[in-house]
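Researcher: Re-running this chain for the archive, since the previous output was lost when a drive failed. Same request as before.
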Amino acid sequence: MSRPQQVARPIVRSLQQATGSAATCPSRLLAIRQFSLTPSRKDETTTSTPAEPSAETHKLAADAALLGQTKPPPYPSMIKQGTEQQLSQFLSPQLGSRRRRAALATTGNVPFEQLPYQCFQEARKVLAQDREEKVAKIVAETAKIRRLEAMDASIYRGGEAYKQKRLESLRQYVEKLKILADINDPMVKRRFEDGKGDMNKPIYRYLAHRKWCSMERKIILQRIEQFHIVPDLLPKFEPTMAVQMTFRGYKVSPGATLNSRITETAPTLRMQVFDKGERLISVVVLDADVPDAETDSFSKRLHFMATNIPWSPTKNSLPLSRLGSDSASPDMGALTVPWLPAFAQKGSPYHRLAVFILEQNNNSPLDTAKLQELYDGQGREGFSLKSFRDKFGLTPVGFNMFRTVWDENTADVMARHGIPGADVEFTRTRVMSLKPPRKARGWEAKRQKLKYRHLWKYTKRIKGIKY
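Model: Regenerated structure tokens:
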């Protein structure tokens, strides 16, 4: 074999493999182009002349610039090759790890439970057998609960209290068995990662709670301690509900400092509860750092309140801007105090805007007219969350927060909403010392007479001595 044939054979073989793989696997098309002076790129795409951006596009870009974020592009259906950062720009993060995304790109339309991997199928058989055992235990424990409910409580030494305690223990054990029956099922994990899990089932609520406790809850607890939410607003607080906040479609991290124009409209809350059943909740947004010049201290101001909002594990989004509008559905709750934009006067420190979710005890609705009479208008000033909680029997379950400072848009926002105080500027009062003036001392101070003129060049601006 000649030398040119030895050199050309690997090239021909690679081209044949590329052509064959492109014909057999449409999801991984390889671009074959003619010889040119420029090297080829795997992520090369055709370009076209972009259209002129509209006014709405400019507005969205301005909002993203104020938040320091970029609007993610729509997720395409095909998988591109590249680094993890490049893949994250084109793929939904709900698809899981990079290994799973690569598997989705290479397996085509094969159902997940029918993947041709022997170890995977054998493991599914073991998991199915374990699930049957757990289901049998659930049936036995459920029958035991029915028998216990039908029995008379007088046969027990503890009476009715012992019977109810025993029933509660058995019900908790049944819920635990329901979770253990599906905790290792790959189909359950896949549906949960894709965001298609039914939150009415305990396994998906358990997975969601475990995911929330892994990072998001730790961040919320850190913000509560870092910004002294406890004890400034509540003497004790432990969140049990996941609360995320978005302004104009952009997710806001807890404690972020936002521009006044972004917070001019009410946010959208994404909330998730982890226990079954429907309940009534209230949403309260308050400013914890309102300066009071007369008393030289800080007070609190109520910025938003909504009550009697029905909530369940299957719900996850609550747009606060729609509450009280004509397009709002009757089951969204009642708007008690409308949204007041977040603002801070010039010279004042940052203001902590706290968002609290409070659960109404026994699902009893609150009197909206009474709340409006108490807290709307002048009742916003000096609002106390602890007093509101104790007066109406509420339990705080969720929390999030953001901060606001004086910026270039604050004066315009205050003018548009008729909020006075845009011309107020807070300055620090200089406290003069009460000590008597001290005479100049030291070697330089003793030699400031004219006869020591030749030594003045060695002095270093002695305070209180004029040349």
